[in-house]
Amino acid sequence: MPIPPLPLGLTEDDTDAIITRALDEDLGEEGDITCAAVIPPEERFIGIMAARQNLVVAGLPVAARVFARLSPEIEFLPEAEDGEQVKAGAVLARLEGPAAAMLSAERVALNFLQHLSGIATETRRYVDAIRGTGCVLLDTRKTTPGLRRLEKYATRMGGASNHRMGLHDAILIKDNHIAVTGSVAEAVRRARAAGHDTIEVECDTLEQVREAVSVGVERILLDNMDPPLLREALEIIGNEAQTEASGGITLENIRAVATTGVNFISVGRITQSAPAVDIGLDWKREPI
Q1: Is 73 part of the annotated catalytic residue set?
Q2: N or C: which end of the chain has fewer CB within 10 A?
Q3: Active-site residue 142, yes or no?
């Protein structure tokens, strides 16, 4: 089977390196000793990968690459698309190929698919909660080490937008930066002196908000502010900067935060705390 192309935002080098580590972890030096012992080399496997709960799909191209890595003879035929919301019982993909290779790849492929679909599903809940407010949901850097690009891809499939990918691609002056430099103004001055034009500053107080506005930053992150305090901060900011709320955001309070008028809300829970969803791969007798 040809290795399927990856969607925009996922690179072959990164994704294949993650798959390699996952398979190496599972197979070790000896390989799948159970399949080697009980599955004849000529045995074929026909399987249906299906959702066992309502979910948003993310990671089918990654799962397909896991199977292809163990055997190019495995046919992986998707019946859903990443980003699609499906009901329990929906068929996500049909597979056919050498039984030993498919069973050896099964757990790793499902781990990726269940984890990424879990993130996409949780993200969609937050997106739905603020629908119609004009506010945009952002993810954060609170991701599983080594899986950031995959997890941020999953949040996009759930309807969120990506915040910065890492420390390397955007300036965000946070509370500890301010503590070290002495003030919001001094931290911003140093960032501009280093050649950075687009700057975001995290503010914990209205005093810091006023200071950030006075030095002309492009975005102000309003950290751990309840809706009344957010409204006060927004009055100070006016149209001088984009605004982002963060800290303590839950499904229960996110709409109240969104209706204050902030431009963005960033939520770490969508990657840090999203539960894996239930997806199964079951043996079928009929050909696909």
Answers
A1: no
A2: C
A3: yes
